[in-house]
Amino acid sequence: MKKITVLTVILLFSEVVLAQKTNSVLADLSAKKEKYGAIAQQIWGFAEIGYQEEKSVALLQETLRNEDFIITKGVAGIPTAFIAEYGEGLPVIAILGEYDALPGLSQEAIAEKKSAGKAAGHACGHHLFGTASTAAAIEVKNWLKANHKKGTIRFYGCPAEEGGSGKVYLVREGLFNDVDAALHWHPADANDANPGSALANKSAKFRFYGVASHAGMAPEKGRSALDGVEAMDMMVNMMREHIPSDARIHYVITNGGKAPNVVPDFAEVYYYVRHGNRKMVVDIFDRITKAAEGAALGTGTTMKYELIGGTHELLPNTTLQKIMYTNLVKVGGVQYTEAEKEFGKQIIQSLGIENGDLSKAAVIQPYKNLDPSFGSTDVGDVSFTVPTAGMGSATWVPGTPAHSWQAVAAGGTDIGNKGMMVAAKTIALTAIDLFLHPDQIVKAKAELEEKRGKDFKYTPLLGDRKPALDYRK
What we know:
By secondary structure, the protein is of the alpha/beta class. The chain has helices spanning 6-31, 33-46, 54-65, 126-146, 166-172, 225-239, 278-299, 318-331, 338-350, 379-383, 405-411, 414-436, 438-452, and strands at residues 70-73, 82-88, 92-98, 102-103, 120-121, 151-158, 181-188, 200-209, 248-255, 266-275, 302-311, 388-394.
């Protein structure tokens, strides 16, 4: 028979106590699902775009203030950015929250395409993102208070992730310099907490200025700004053959003139450049600016550009990711009701997916290193500053792509709320683990330093420009 020592008894007792505390956290969040679901759905209804999220921010600030968090508004020169903090001393654990919607994606919470009559929609689920992170921060606060633990839990209200690079300004301002670990999540169509990356991104609006004239009676007197935009686009499209195959360039003409019979004296095109390495992004972006300069020269117009955003690639931290994955497995996935299964089947049909599998929402994906995502996030800049871990939970019907009307629809239902609570529980447990095991923070910091290099110096891709508060206007 194995000899039972005093130390063994103490360890076993500690494990039982810890399990009870974990169960208490999960039970408390489960009991508050309706409360947080109502908050998320209010923000879904607000559907405010980047740097204009006044109502969403006010609601989250009120929720945190009522839970004894100290609120600092308008950080980094951004009216809709804020920090909410509870506790004192080390470690300092940050939880990131977003709340901006996407323009032009209004949708009712039904399984058919139908506008809700708004200018924007939460097609990336940030109404759930901000709310779940708020719920997690509050639950960690409750745990710290109940157990008389020292440490600081800090919620970062992060605006304009969709192209506005909101977090970059917070990082540039030094607001993460004293943070020991940062936790985040994102709505998705599956549950995972795998170490994956995302692409660096740099974006700008290129503005061409020409000479207006009557397009029929005096075309020779005009110089078309639209010609400048189209000449630039043509050169950039030819350039695609001569950049790395895993790079991405997107653009949209945001202003091409007002009437065909008027030679436009102003035109604008909005460009994104993405790649897995920020240095390659800068190189490609510089080539695009040369194309813009050449286009202006060739069309007799002038050109100026405004840098809108720029983000680092995401740097995963496996030390933190393993802790988060363990907690996600403990929490489990999303269970659908019969009505939700019917909704899900209709969504799958609208996506043209054959043999769609709704059970994926209940499954936790296996732990593995992921290939880089072809999306981008301003969490990348945070991840080069402080050890960072993230996860995704099934807030959308399996198979649903982000930035789709189907994502907006599911996010406005209890399917979205259920996935949101999976994230809230996982993040809360992960933060608590870090308060209980500070040695893991030490290990995570060593991993960060090794990955980014000892000589690393943070340089934001958007330079020293002020926050682009009007980039959606």
